[in-house]
Model the fold of this input.
Amino acid sequence: MKEDESMERWKKVLLGALCLVMAVAGGAFAEAKDVLTVANIYDAKTLDPIATNDVASSGVCLHVYDNLLALGPDGVPVPQLAEKYEIIDPTTYKFYLRKGVTFHNGEPFTAADVKYTFERAKSPAGASIRQYVDDIDTIEVVDDSTVVFKLKRPFTPFLLALTHTAGSILNQKAVEAAGDNYGMNPVGTGPFVFKAWAKGDKITLERNDAYWGHKPAYKTLVMRSIPEPTNRTIELESGAVDLAYQITTNDLKRVEENPKLSLLRVVDNSTTYMGFNCSKAPFDNSKVRKAISMALDTVGLQKAVWRGVGKAPIGPVAPNVLYSYKDFQPHVQNVEEAKKILAEEKVTLPLAVQIWTNERKERIDMATIIQSQLAEVGINAEIKVLEWGAYLDGLKQKTHDMFLLGWVASVPDPEFAISGVFHSSMVGSTNFTYFVDAEVDKMMEAGKALPNGPDREKAYVELQKRIDDLCPWVYLHNDEQIVGAQKNVKGFVPSPRGYHILTDVTFE
Done:
C-alpha cells in the first residue's frame, strides 16, 4: 500500500511540475506572440516629427502619431484625424475633424491642436520639413472640430503633403511640458504609446488600448537598431526579431532558402547618390562635377555592389514617382574626357578629397569602388565612415567634399522628390549639396502650382533636365525595400516610401 501511495504521490508531483512547465512555456509563448520586434538599420534621430526627415525617425513617428490624412495603398490620401474635407477653392481647404479622440496624455484632440501643429512646423524648428508646409499661409479654427487652411498660392500636392510624418498632429501641452526633450518624450494620438528609448539600441512602444481606430493585434512594438546587415540576418534566423529591414545582397539567398523565413520585396521611391558640396571649390564648378561623374562607371558599380537588387538610375527622380523622366540616356564612363575637362578647368592634380558615408555596407562598398575609379583621373579620395546621427549632423556643418546618401520620395509626387534636396530654401537642412540655382527654384515653384496633367509633366521634365545638366548628384542606385520575416508573421506589406506600417501585423 505504501508503495502504491508513494507512486501516486510522485505522479501528482510530476503532473504538477508538468503543468507548471506548460504554464511557464505557455506564458512565454503568449508573451512572444504579443511582442513584434523589428530590426531596423538605423536608430531614430528624434521623435519630434518636425525636427528631422530621415526614414528611421519617420518609421517610429508613423506609429505614435496620426495625421489629418494618411497615404492609402494606392498613393491616394485617405481620412485619418480628418473624417472629410472640402476644397473651397485652389487655395482654401476645409477639414472636418474626428470627434472623441484623445492624446496619449489624456488631452482631447481639437482643431486648436491642428493649428498649433502646423504653425510650429512653419517655425524655424521645422527647417527639415519645410517643403511640406511652406505654402500654408494661415490656419483658422472655426470650432473644435473644424479647421480651414489658406495657402499662399495653389499647391497641387497639398493633400499628399499632409500624409507625411511632418504633419503628425501634436498636443501643445505635451510639447511645452517636455521643452527641448520633446523628441525623447513624444505624445500623439496614434495606435502606439511611447514607452522607452535606449539610444543606439531600441525604442519600445505599447499599444494604445484607447485608440479610436484599428488596434494592433499585439501589445508591444520594439524597434531595434542593428546597423550591421549580417547581424540583422542572424537575429532573424535565431528568432530574436520578427522582421528585419533591408536584407543585404549577401544574405538574400540564405533568407530565401530558410523554410522558417519569408523574403518580401518592393521597388521603392529612392535614389542613392553621390553628392558634391557645391559651395566649395572645385565642386562649385558644374563642369568639374561632370568630369568627376564621367570618371565613374556607375552602371558597373551598381551591378557589382547590388548584384540584382534595384538598378542603376538615369535621373534624379526615382522611376515610380509621378512624372519621372524616363528618356535620360544611361551613364557612360569616359576617363579621357574627364581628364580633359579637369585640365581645362585648371584643377590642380593630384586632388585630395574625402568621400563621406554612413555605416551601411553597400554604401561603403560603393565608396571603395568610386575611390579606385577617381584615382585614374588624379583624384585621391579618403573614405570617412560615420555613425548615422553624426553623419547627418556633420553634413550640416558644410565641411564635406563628397558624400553618399539616399533620398526617398515618401510622398510620390515630383515636388517631394526634388524640392527637399535641390531647392535653395533647404540648404543645410536636407539639401546637403548646398546646391543653389535661381532657375531651378523658379521652375520648382511653377511646377508645384500647376494642376496635374501634361503641362505639369512638361514642367517637371524640363526641371529634371536642368538638374541633370548642373550635376549636383552622381546617380548610383534605385533601391528595393527587402524585408526578411518569420513565417508566422502575417499582414506585413513593405512600403515604397521606405518606412513601413506595422499595425496590421498578426502572428499565425
The CA atoms of residues 175 and 181 lie 9 Å apart.
